[in-house]
Predict the structure.
Amino acid sequence: MIIVQTPRAIVRHATHDDAAFILKLVNEPGWHRFIGDRNVHDLDAARAYIDERFLASYAKYGFGSFVVCEKSSNTPIGLIGFVQRDSLDAPDIGFAITDAYQSKGYAFEICTALIDYGWNDLGFDKIYGYCLPDNVPSLRLLEKLGLTYLRDQDVNHDADEKCRVYGATRP
């Protein structure tokens, strides 16, 4: 199911057909450094990850992380979407673009469209974004998207890991 389209990308629901892509993405060095090892090391684990992280969220909340495909080639290039966490009172926007497609403006283009989708289609009143303090490109992206710094917080229930939390309210 297509969620949004931008001039260069299609944002859609994940399916089991995305298992090979998910396996590749979650094992890239940047994912491990800034998101963490999700213990997805084969296609069966990737399919289980899709079930637990994506399909379950779509069913429960009507949103989740979505697969981003380059429009011209239909090649999956990342995951961008909304996650509802116990530690936050509204969804947060998360993004991960494969190494080969980083620094080309895809994350900004797609996040901008998804934030509009969150306000206009999902009825969000508030959206968060967060990342580790040393993830400077992600901090800059959150600011460029119009989110403002709110606080440092243990978002993932890991006492050793405080994240920078940003937020925006419905315009």
Summary: The mean pLDDT is 93. The longest strand covers residues 76-83.
